[in-house]
């Protein structure tokens, strides 16, 4: 999804593991992407957001992949963390993503083939729509 969004707005992709939080000062608008883990953003995304400095006039949108549910709670956490840093949260987008669950029934794979071409098309449309807001 990150690649589809970046192509749609001619943006850059940076992994949080390779990005220092203060490097975001060079950007007017950022997209944050994450898988949903237990109705929360991935831990490395939460940690990154916690380390962000205070900003002014910076805007952000978020996107995620989810097993079935959890995107609403995930976006709520991201929005709260961003707003604590002075970042304006514009919008969010989610779609199904490949997921694996292991339980007493054994390992199971869900949502094979997702995000698919239609999901990626919708992600690109989301990015273009959001871009119109900044």
Q: How would the global form be characterised?
A: globular
**Structural class, from helix and strand content?**
alpha/beta
Oligomer state equals: single chain
Low-confidence stretches: none
Task: Sum up the structure in keywords.
single chain; 134 residues; alpha/beta; Rossmann fold; 3-stranded parallel β-sheet; two-stranded antiparallel sheet; 4 helices; 5 strands; globular
Lay out the secondary structure.
Elements: H1 2-9, E1 29-35, H2 43-51, E2 59-66, H3 71-84, E3 88-96, E4 99-103, E5 106-110, H4 117-131
Parallel strand pairs: 1-2, 2-3
Antiparallel strand pairs: 4-5
State the gist of this model.
The protein is built from four helices and five strands, in the order αβαβαβββα. It is α/β, with parallel strands linked by helices and 134 residues long.
Q: Can you tell me about this structure?
A:
With 134 residues, the protein is of the alpha/beta class. It has one domain: Rossmann fold. Helices cover 34% and strands 25% of the residues. The chain has four helices and five strands. The chain has helices at 2-9, 43-51, 71-84, 117-131, and strands spanning 29-35, 59-66, 88-96, 99-103, 106-110. A three-stranded parallel sheet has the order 1-2-3, with helices on both faces. Strands 4-5 form a two-stranded antiparallel sheet. Helix 2 (43-51) links the parallel strand 1 and strand 2. Helix 1 crosses helix 4. It is globular. It starts with a helix and ends with a helix. The mean pLDDT is 90.
